[in-house]
Amino acid sequence: MSDEERALIAAELRERLGWMASLTDVGLPRESVGAAPPPGAAVSRPVEAVAPAVPAPARVAAVVAPAPARVAAPAASAPTRLAAPEPTPARKPAKSALPEWAAPNPSAEPSPVPTAGEPEERLKALVDWIGNCQRCALAPTRNKIVYGQGNLRAEIMFVGEAPGADEDEQGLAFVGRAGQLLTDIIEKGLKVPRSEVFIANVIKCRPPQNRNPETAEILACQPFLEQQIDIIRPKVLVGLGKFSGQWLLKTAEPISRIRGRFGEYKGIPVMPTFHPAYLLRNPSAKKDVWEDLKLVLRHLGRSA
Ligand code: SF4
Predict the structure, then answer these.
(1) Is the CB of 137 under 6 A from ligand 1?
(2) Which residues have C-beta within 8 Å of that of residue 227, sequence separation ≥ 6?
(3) What class, spelled out in words, does domain 112-299 have in CATH?
(4) What is the pTM of this model?
(5) Atom of ligand 1 at shortest distance to CA of 133?
(6) Tens digits of per-residue pLDDT, 152-201?
(7) What is the residue extent of each domain of the chain?
(8) Which of 135, 146, 201 to mutate for ligand 1's pocket (most ligand atoms within 8 Å of CB)?
């Protein structure tokens, strides 16, 4: 053999050794890649000698089963998702508990007032039903029951809180100073005669010293107001002050928050606004009442 032939063989051996080594360098058994060993098995023996003796199944699994790697990827990202802040829940509006006196009274006695017929007949049945009412603690101190008065076919019905001293004396709703202011609001603001509207209160007897009505008193008296509203069936109810606005709308929200927006009582639009007695103490609030009543006029299709 010439020197030239020996050099060619040595070069071929070096090339094959380098190929075999490249496979084991990346951890791949030659069998796993389906690589046919180059001709001359004897040439490959030195390579097997340098490669670590790893059991074939384990190494094959590492290659042909890429799933663990893919499974591992999401697992690695899981902590990121867990660490992400929870979405902030939508802010719910604060909800106050409904005052007991504004809730339906489950123990109310059934009404004997006819559910249909002329308003005059139904109102007479209501007054008969009220009778010399002793149903709450206000009976012993009252002078007169103040049923309310006005047009039984009114488009607008005003509902106040309770009779005061003048009302208790005369048996008529809103006849004192606050009543005079209400008359101005109706006749100068709404431009209708007071006799065209109906005016009533949540309770029909005066609380001593004009204190706030108590829950038991309102619950005892509320069937009468419910019947009055049902008889008159106005196009709009105007709630004057806290007790009326909250009772009509069945809410605990303060009058300052519910005024100026229509609510609803049994399908009838309700506009809550400030009580005339409050306006006597806070004349600057008159403009708010006027804004509320302009909405009432607009609802009735009338101009302010
Ligand atoms: S306030 Fe109403 S329930 Fe109480 S005594 Fe007068 S009418 Fe009767």
Answers:
(1) no
(2) 111, 113, 122, 126, 129
(3) alpha beta
(4) 0.69
(5) 8
(6) 999 999 999 999 999 999 999 999 999 999 999 999 999 999 999 999 99
(7) 3-73, 112-299
(8) 135
